[in-house]
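Q: Protein A?
A:
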Amino acid sequence: MIAGVETYKNRPTRAEIFLNNLRNNLSIVRSFVNNNVKIMAMVKANAYGHGLYEISSELLKQGVEYLGVAFLEEGIYLRKCGITAPIVVLGAIHTDQIAEFIHHDIEITSSSIDKSAAIATVAKDMGKEAKVHLKIDTGMERIGVHWNHAERFIETSYECKSMTIKGVCSHFAKAETDPDFTSQQLNRFESVLNMMEKKRLLPELIHIANSAGIMNYKNSHYTMVRPGIMLYGYNPNGYLPDVRFGDRKLKPIMTLKTKVAYFKVVPAQTGISYNHTYRTSKQTRIVTLPIGYGDGYFRQLSNKGEVIIRGKKYPVVGMICMDQCMVEIGMDGSAYNGDDVLLFGEMDGNTIPLESLCDKVGTVTYEFLCGISSRVPRIYVE
């Protein structure tokens, strides 16, 4: 998905992706679920910024049964890369894309009677069978038929010719924070499943559990689970670095690094970067890093961020630019052009948790990871 200059692997700014950590995190997911429960690995949004094809390939090597994406284009990309495993698009579909779903053997989420009818019509015209998951809304209010109006939707979908119902699913809204509402969602989903079972319409795949559901609600695992942020090394319940799962703990798989590009001595009372939002209090040393908000290093980290150079932590000063930012190392600090700089993750035994940066800018790990732009090369490390 990255072309031209964006694939230049010797760029000083790079995201190192540690595949052994991915394998560790997958093993933790497996420790929560029974052996007969399938795993649909969520690899949407370029595998949360980690690389769609590379992460998908590794997860499939490790025995993951399904891949979950958000858009048709992600599924087609994986097919063109040679991925033959089952892929489900969990987002809302546009009816003019249905033929492409069927042509590329990508499973479809139907969220209404009209969508099911449209899928069946296109499949019949193509002389093929569409594979479909029925989406039930139990409280997310995003897509899907409300649980208390689902019976007609389900019966009508099963009556559609040229369509195989592979699964039924829903999505948690607050599994990280609200046990009462999550239990209510599960009860709503159970009522639909009970109705389907009585009518002998229960499909093979039943899934609702995201990472928080996997960890917090064993009764939500059913026949398949959908881990996302857990796979990438983050606890959906919050930053809990010392929590262990047996003899293991979740390990972030991305480390973001760059290199010192420039070094200078700056006098006291000198403004740094755009609009001089930072002024030096005394003569000091400033280094420039070749990374900015165009790479996904949030502009809101201006005068808030911290980096590690040669084992010491230093502040990001002045406004973060599109392509560069500045760090003050002081007159006692030591840095040389070409030195590695840690922005988040782990380097030489030092760490900057991504969660700490998210707290500074008021966001979540999901957004920060997805925001690391395509011009930052991903370097895969065993």
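Q: Protein B?
A:
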Amino acid sequence: MAIERPRTLHGRRRGRRLRPGRQRLLDELLPRLAIDPARGPVDPAGLFDMACDDVWLEVGFGGGEHLTAQARAHPEIGFIGCESFVNGIAKALSLIDAEKLTNVRILADDARPLIDALPESSIGRFFLLFPDPWPKKRHHARRFVSPENLDAMARILRDGAELRMASDDMEYIRWMLFHTIGHGAFEWLARGPDDWRRRPDDWPATRYEEKAGRAGATCVFLRFRRRPRSAQ
């Protein structure tokens, strides 16, 4: 049963006025790639014209650098990206259009209704990269990493699927670890400091990560595995 989700987890929806070319992509390309979870249950593999070996989901893809790099590197996999910031969506569409990517679909809204609409054990990898840390204590309830959302992620992830999260906010990193390790459905894959200090080679950088690095911030990369349901 879908969970009632009244809180807003994202920030502003729109930035500066879009250039005509990016506005055209919003008007013409986005409708061809858009997902509408309000229509009912979503078959992730059925979203794509190709036969997919797997479907991976990224929540809050920003400008789409990571999403499109993964889609380019894995043409056999279908990618679903969720983002509510219009300017970021337009940037991602420009990358999709330039690279003629056919294995990406987009939800231009809050990811939680889509997650509720996905079948159990239907996603092979989940990315949550540099989400808004909502640093003020009174805003902590808006953080995406929460017991309720971890329940929802655990439901849609296959046994053995990977959950990847990253942040440059150390307090939020501690929050992520506390809630995800304590949840029970996820095993932290780190065996040494390099496993969280160094971004894996198959994990493309994002614009936000590069910006954080230029500002002298330390980025942390977390990898978790969905435990077998029989072991919980």
